[in-house]
C-alpha cells in the first residue's frame, strides 16, 4: 500500500490494496475485487478477537449491517488487530462483511496509521468519493443504531433536533409506536393497540433480566401493580426489554402481568436514549396527557408502594412531608425492631435486646465478604471501633450482611468484634430502604436518640478514624478548624527541586503518596494537580521551615498529625 496523505479524502483502491493484491476476502475465503466498492460508502472496522469491547460491539454492528446492506450503497471492511491467523479466522467467521487479508500486515498497519487508530473498536466511514464522513462510528452506532446512517455529524444533529421537537410534542403514541407498529404485546403474544392506553397513567419499566438488581425489583413492582389494579386505578405498565436473549424475555413476560414492547424493537434503544437512562431499575411515569410526570419512580415505589400513586408532584410533596416527619420521629427501636425481631446478636450468639442499645451511638455497617471494597474497609473499621470503644462505652456497631450464604457470613463476621443482625434477617430489606442502600460498604451513624446523623460515616472513618466520633457536623467543624490551624504559617505555594517546572500548591487531601519519601499522607499536601505530583508538607518545606513559628509547646501530636492543644 502506498503512503497515504493525511487528508480527508481517500482513494479506496490504493488505500485497501497492495502491489500483490487488488481484492478483499470474505469469511468463506472468496475474493472480492476492491473495485466493487466504487460508488459505495465504506466503513473501516478496526477490531480484534482479544478485545472485550470489540466482542460486545461486533454483534450490534452485524445487526446494523444486515439492516442497511440491502440499500446496496454500504460495505464494511474488517481491519484486524489480531495477533495470529487462527484468532483472526475465528473472529472473522462471525462477520458478514469483507476484510483485509490477515497476511497483509503492511496494509493493516498503514490503515492504523492513516486513521490514527489509538484504541479499538474503532469505526471510520468514508463516502462514495472517499471523503471522511466520521471517525466516531462506534459511538454513533452505539447511541443511534441504524438511525444514525450515514453516521455523519450532520445526521446526529438532525436526530437530536428531531428528539427535541418530539419532546415538545410528546404523546404516548409518539413514545411507543413506530411507522410499522402501533401496538404493544401481552405475554401470550396478543397485540394491544397503544391507542387503548391513552388517557391512563403509564409506567415505562426498563428491564434487564440478567441484571440482578433489576430482576429482584420486578417482584416488588408486580405487587404494587396488582394492588393498583385491584383498586381499579387507571394505570398500566409497559416493559421496555433490554435483553439480547428472546427466551429470557419470554420467560420474564410469563411471570409478569403487564404489557411489553416486542423483543429487540427499535423503540427500546430510542427510549433508552430519549430518557437518558443511567440506572436500573427505572420506571418512567407518563401522565394521562402523554407527558412525562417523573423520570424514575423506582425508589419511590420500593419505599412507599401504592402510596406513591399517581406519581404526581403533589403526591411526592406529600410523601416528602411524611418522610420528614418519619425522620424526626425515628428511634433506634423504630429502625431495628420488627414484630418479634427485637434483638441483635453478640459475638457469642446471645440475643441482645435492641432496648439495651437505646441511648448509645450506633454505627450500622452494610457489608459482605464477597465485596472487595468491604474487605478492604473492615480492618480500618475494626481499628476505629476498638479505639472509640476504649474511650466511649456507649458506642456500638451492628453488621448487616449481604453475604450469599451462612458460611460466608460466619467467616466474615468472625473478623469483627461487634454486634450483628442474624444472617438473612428480614429486617435487612427495610433497613436498606430506610437508608437507601444502593451499594456497599455503607456505614450509617445514628445518635443517642436513634436519629440519623450521617449515611456517609465510611468516608469519615477513612479520613479521620476514631477522631471523627461522634460523626456530627459539630465534630467535623472542630476537626476542620484544627486542620486549618495546622497549616497556619505555611506558604500557599512553593517550588521544589524534585518538580522545578511548576509551583506546588498547598492543598487539602484525603490521601496521597508522597513523591519524595514514597510514604502515604493525608490532610495537607503540596500538589501539582496537572502532573499528579504530591509532597508531604515536611518533605516540601523541610522540618525546620515547617515548624518555624510553631514551637512544640501547646501542640499535641497523634500519629502523623499534630493538633493545637485545646
Automatic annotation (TrEMBL):
Its EC number is 1.8.1.8. It catalyses: [protein]-dithiol + NAD(+) = [protein]-disulfide + NADH + H(+); [protein]-dithiol + NADP(+) = [protein]-disulfide + NADPH + H(+). InterPro entries: C1-like_sf, DC1, Nucleoredoxin-like, Thioredoxin-like_fold, Thioredoxin-like_sf, Thioredoxin_CS, Thioredoxin_domain, TryX_NRX_thioredoxin_dom. Belongs to the nucleoredoxin family. PANTHER family: THIOREDOXIN (PTHR13871), THIOREDOXIN DOMAIN-CONTAINING PROTEIN (PTHR13871:SF96). It comes from Helianthus annuus (Common sunflower). Residues 7-165, 321-484 form the Thioredoxin domain. It is an enzyme of class 1 (oxidoreductase). GO terms for molecular function: thioredoxin-disulfide reductase (NADPH) activity. This is protein-disulfide reductase. It comes from the Eukaryota. It holds the Pfam family Thioredoxin_8. PROSITE patterns: THIOREDOXIN_1 (PS00194), THIOREDOXIN_2 (PS51352). Keywords: NAD, Oxidoreductase, Repeat. Coiled coil: none annotated.
Amino acid at each position: 500500500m502506498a503512503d497515504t496523505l493525511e487528508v480527508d479524502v481517500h482513494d479506496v483502491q490504493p488505500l485497501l490494496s497492495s502491489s500483490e493484491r487488488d481484492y478483499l476476502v470474505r469469511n468463506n475465503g472468496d475474493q472480492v475485487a476492491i473495485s466493487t466498492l466504487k460508488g459505495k460508502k465504506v466503513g473501516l472496522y478496526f477490531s480484534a478477537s482479544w478485545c472485550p469491547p470489540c466482542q460486545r460491539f461486533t454483534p450490534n454492528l452485524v445487526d446494523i449491517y444486515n439492516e442497511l446492506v440491502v440499500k446496496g450503497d454500504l460495505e464494511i471492511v474488517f481491519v484486524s488487530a489480531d495477533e495470529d491467523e487462527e484468532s483472526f479466522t475465528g473472529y472473522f467467521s462471525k462477520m458478514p462483511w469483507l476484510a483485509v487479508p490477515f497476511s497483509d500486515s503492511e496494509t493493516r498497519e498503514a490503515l492504523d496509521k492513516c486513521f490514527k487508530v489509538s484504541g479499538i473498536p474503532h469505526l471510520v466511514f468514508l463516502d462514495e468519493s472517499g471523503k471522511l464522513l466520521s471517525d466516531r462510528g462506534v459511538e454513533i452506532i452505539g447511541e443511534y443504531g441504524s438511525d444514525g446512517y450515514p453516521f455523519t455529524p450532520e445526521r446526529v444533529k438532525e436526530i437530536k433536533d428531531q428528539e427535541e421537537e418530539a419532546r415538545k410534542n410528546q404523546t404516548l403514541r409518539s413514545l411507543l409506536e413506530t411507522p410499522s407498529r402501533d401496538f404493544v404485546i401481552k405475554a401470550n403474544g396478543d397485540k394491544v393497540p397503544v391507542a387503548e392506553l391513552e388517557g391512563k397513567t403509564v409506567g415505562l419499566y426498563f428491564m434487564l433480566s440478567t441484571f440482578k438488581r433489576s430482576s429482584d425489583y420486578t417482584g416488588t413492582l408486580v405487587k404494587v401493580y396488582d394492588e393498583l389494579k385491584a383498586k381499579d386505578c387507571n394505570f398500566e405498565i409497559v416493559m421496555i426489554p433490554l435483553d439480547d436473549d428472546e427466551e429470557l424475555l419470554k420467560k420474564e413476560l410469563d411471570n409478569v402481568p403487564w404489557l411489553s414492547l416486542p423483543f429487540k424493537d427499535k423503540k427500546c434503544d430510542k427510549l433508552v436514549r430519549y430518557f437518558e437512562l443511567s440506572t436500573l431499575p427505572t420506571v418512567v411515569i407518563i401522565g394521562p396527557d402523554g407527558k412525562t410526570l417523573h423520570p424514575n419512580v423506582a425508589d419511590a415505589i420500593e419505599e412507599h408502594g401504592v402510596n406513591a400513586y399517581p406519581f404526581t408532584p403533589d403526591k411526592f410533596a406529600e410523601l416528602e412531608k411524611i418522610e420528614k416527619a418519619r425522620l424526626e420521629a425515628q428511634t433506634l427501636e423504630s429502625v431495628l425492631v420488627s414484630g418479634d425481631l427485637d434483638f441483635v446478636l453478640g459475638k457469642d450468639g446471645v440475643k441482645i435486646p435492641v432496648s439495651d442499645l437505646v441511648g448509645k451511638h450506633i454505627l450500622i455497617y452494610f457489608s459482605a465478604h464477597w465485596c472487595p471494597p468491604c474487605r478492604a474497609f473492615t480492618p480500618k473499621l475494626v481499628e476505629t471501633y476498638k479505639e472509640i470503644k476504649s474511650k466511649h462505652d456507649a458506642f456500638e456497631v451492628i453488621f448487616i450482611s449481604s453475604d450469599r450464604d451462612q458460611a460466608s457470613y460466619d467467616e466474615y463476621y468472625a473478623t469483627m468484634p461487634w454486634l450483628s443482625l442474624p444472617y438473612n434477617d428480614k429486617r435487612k430489606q427495610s433497613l436498606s430502604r430506610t437508608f437507601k442502600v444502593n451499594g456497599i460498604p455503607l456505614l450509617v451513624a445514628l445518635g443517642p436518640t436513634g436519629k440519623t446523623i450521617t449515611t456517609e460515616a465510611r468516608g469519615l472513618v477513612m479520613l479521620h478514624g476514631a477522631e471523627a466520633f461522634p460523626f456530627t457536623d459539630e465534630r467535623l467543624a472542630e476537626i476542620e478548624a484544627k486542620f486549618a490551624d495546622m497549616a497556619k504559617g505555611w506558604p500557599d505555594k512553593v517550588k521544589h527541586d524534585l518538580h522545578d517546572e511548576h509551583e506546588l500548591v498547598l492543598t487539602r487531601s484525603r490521601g496521597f503518596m508522597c513523591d519524595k519519601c514514597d510514604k502515604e499522607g493525608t490532610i495537607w499536601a503540596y500538589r501539582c494537580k496537572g502532573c499528579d505530583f504530591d509532597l508531604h508538607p515536611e518533605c516540601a518545606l523541610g522540618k525546620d521551615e515547617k515548624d518555624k513559628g510553631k514551637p512544640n509547646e501547646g501542640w499535641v501530636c497523634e500519629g502523623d498529625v499534630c493538633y493545637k492543644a485545646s
